[in-house]
Amino acid sequence: MDTDAGVMIDSPEGLVRLMSGLESETVCAIDTEADSLHRYKESLCLIQFAVGKDSVLIDPLVLEDMAPLGEFLKTATVWMHGADYDMTMLRREFDEISPVVYDTQIGARLLGVRKFGLANLVEHYFGVVLSKTSQKADWGKRPLSPKMTDYALNDVRYLLPMGEKIVAELREKGRYDWFVESCDAARQKVLERDESKEEPWRVQGAGRLDRKGLNYLRTLWMWRDSEAESWDRPSFMVATNRNILEWAGLLAGGKSVEFPGHYRADRRRRLDSALAKAAKDSPEGYPEKLKGLRRRRDGDFERRVNEMIAVRDRKAAELDIESSLIASRAVIETLAIGGEGSEGLLLNWQKECLGLD
Fold first, then answer.
1. pLDDT tens digit string along 320-354?
2. Is pLDDT above 60 for 257?
């Protein structure tokens, strides 16, 4: 890889030169940084890219045409760590994901490693302690400080040699096929994910609210979103999901809410106005509760669940891996109910571990 352009690739010529220098290379490591902790609308701010022993930073905030990188990734095998987020960011940028994406986190967990953060694995495999000081940095600012640059490069610097070590151990334990299947399933999940959520206000935990509570939740979410957009800050800086869920429940029950005292007067006025309007809404217009899968919690159901959990836990102990890797309790409960397609929740290796193959 030609890195004469420097550590930061921030010109069209530099990107073309970088990618043309790859020649027959087909394997790379990638990580991404965004500004979701600092802006209302998340932007891809940095791409860390490694091939062989070389690693560079690519600046998508400056480069209007990322096509040379996109063309390379169309046929590349890419190593990532905790790949879901990075695959999501690359899908948004290029409208596709590389055909093969291997995740060092998945591999380490299949080996039974309990501390599987990137820094944990770098220390585990290389004895190197990485700094975490730039973990929550504002990656939308330029120029990057030397500390941020080094932090970013470390995110890909060790991935390829770490991947080799992990693959060797997986093959030795006979779990390499599990790894490939798991990584492919994770990639497919990102490809199939619908990001155009029709009711984004239905945050996790909303199902516990009644229809009146849901009406208040929707109102609070829309108020929060508007405030965050005008402020150009992430919505959690206005109020967290936990906050608006708690407030919606209290309001629906006719109880008073103690809102944060630091809210500016104009923000508080807009909040009070939105809630006053919601209080006058007709019950006929309240959002409907979503109907989830009803679980028949009879004795036979509990017996089937407990039997599968016992099989799962014995196998997990035998393999020395976390039992949730084989199947979560929620998945097991769905399997206990049965129904068409329920076993599609499991990968082949997971079915094998549960004796369902």
1. 999 999 999 989 998 988 765 676 899 999 999 99
2. yes
Q: Which residue, chain included where needed, has tokens 């094998």?
A: 352
Tokens of 94: 């290029």
CB neighbour class for 218 (10 Å; exposed up to 12, middle 13-18, buried from 19): buried
Structure token pair of residue 49:
């890219």
Q: pLDDT tens for residues 274-326?
A: 999 999 999 999 999 987 655 556 678 899 999 999 999 999 999 999 999 99
Closest by CA to 156, choosing from 190, 123, 118, 182, is: 118
Contact status, residue 106 vs residue 186, Cβ threshold 8 Å: yes
Q: Considering all CA atoms of the chain, what is the largest pairwise distance in Å, rounded to the nearest integer?
A: 69
Please write down the HEC assignment for all residues of the chain: CCCCCCCEECCHHHHHHHHHCCCCCCEEEEEEEECCCCCCCCCEEEEEEEECCEEEEECCCCCCCCHHHHHHHCCCEEEECCHHHHHHHHHHHHCCCCCEEEEHHHHHHHCCCCCCCHHHHHHHHHCCCCCCCCCCCCCCCCCCCHHHHHHHHHHHHCHHHHHHHHHHHHHHHCCHHHHHHHHHHHHHHHHHCCCCCCCCCCCCCHHHCCHHHHHHHHHHHHHHHHHHHHHCCCHHHCCCHHHHHHHHHHHHCCCCCCCCCCCCHHHHHHHHHHHHHHHCCCHHHCCCCCCCCCCCCCHHHHHHHHHHHHHHHHHHHHHCCCHHHHCCHHHHHHHHHCCCCHHHHCCHHHHHHHCCC
